[in-house]
Amino acid sequence: MNYRSFSDLSSLIENNIQNIPWDIDLVVGVPRSGLLVANMIALLMNKTLTDLNGYLDNRLIASGKTKNVSPKLPKDCKKVLIVEDSVASGASIISCKEKMSSIKDVEFIYLAAYVEPGKEKMVDIFFEILPQPRVFEWNLFHHKGVISNSCFDIDGVLCIDPTNEQNDDGDKYIDFIKNAEVKMLPTVKIDKIVTSRLEKYRSYTEEWLKKNNIEYNELVMLNATAEERREKNLHASFKAEVYKNSKDELFIESEINQAIDINKISGKPVYCTENNYMYDGSKEYLKMESRKRGFKAFLLKFRLVRYLNKKRKNRKNGTK
CA 270, CA 260: separation in Å to the nearest integer? Predict the structure, then answer.
């Protein structure tokens, strides 16, 4: 799974901003995701910004007073940058070009931050070739192709986590389930909701999902007691086994350590909402884990040396 975050996008734009002509008069974002990229570019280059319909209607998006931006109206602009976040089929860019075909005496430059292999010539400027399967942080929860083939945790993903006081495996917890505050609402149908909530709370959970119009194919809950779940630490292993034995291609988890364990056990990618990181067994992730293990080993060695030095000093002084 090729995943790119807001942070990845920001770095990509900053590292490639020199590839955009500095004499452009206007930046035009193609709604909705193209506006995200266009806004970043316009801010970095201190250029006037509008959306596609705004350009066609000869209106701008209002700007603040932080920087001096030349307030040219679209009809007065002779060099215009039209921006998309990505090109897959190319339908959006083709549609833009058709809309601009009747406009004369204007140089249009088409840009996409990401393009699929083979689609490079559909735009004048691109920053990265990114093959499928791919997903972006800004459209993850609304991407039908992804969400319909995903497993979702509930607590920390779809709703907030319970507090320690609420998590009493009793009346307070039931009240939490019934009235949990929504955190994220996917706009497409989820394949599986996989939660380490106990099976005995199914009816309350189903009621909450229905109340919040969250659609799904299957709700999988843990058939165990709270004591068994705690003693055997079943949270991640339970989710991982369900995910591993499913056709689903992504698990969305809220807690970092569980996300790491689910990825390791299932061998499939896991997106963690706590740090917006895609755990997929990549070399970058392995290096990060290796650095952590190396640092821990260093600390153990340092503590051992300090302990031995202290013992030697005590022996020398005749103390224990």
Answer: 8
- H/E segment holding residue 135: strand 134-136
Q: Is the pTM of this model over 0.90?
A: no
Q: How far apart are CA 273 and CA 68, in angstroms?
A: 38
From the CB of residue 62, how many other CB atoms can be counted at a distance below 10 Å?
6
User: 64 with 175, same domain?
Assistant: no
Is residue 289 in a domain?
A: no
Same domain assignment for residues 130 and 202: no
Q: What is the span of the domain harbouring residue 252?
A: 140-279
pLDDT at 299 over 90: no
Peptide bond preceding 293 in cis form (omega within 30 of 0): no
> Do 121 and 16 share a structural domain?
yes
pLDDT confidence tier of residue 58, bands split at 50, 70 and 90: confident
* Tens digits of residue pLDDT in 120-155: 999 999 999 999 889 999 999 988 889 999 999 999
Find the range with the poorest average confidence among 1-5, 77-81, 105-109. Answer: 1-5
Q: Compute the average pLDDT of residues 62-73.
A: 63
Please identify, among 119, 136, 153, the residue that sits at the C-terminal boundary of a domain: 136
Residue pair 190/140 in contact (Cβ under 8 Å)? The answer is no
Per-residue burial over 285-310, b = 16 or more CB atoms within 10 Å of its CB, e = otherwise:
eeeeeeeeeeeeeeeeeeeeeeeeee
**Residue 271, SS3 per DSSP:** strand
Instruction: Give the count of domains, the chain.
Output: 2
Greater confidence (312 vs 186) lies with: 186
Let me know whether 113 and 193 are in one domain. no
Give me the amino acid identity at 161: D
Q: What is the DSSP letter of 25?
A: -
* C-alpha span between 239 and 261 (Å, rounded): 10
| CATH number, residue 87 | 3.40.50.2020
Answer yes or no: are the C-beta atoms of 138 and 94 closer than 8 Å: no
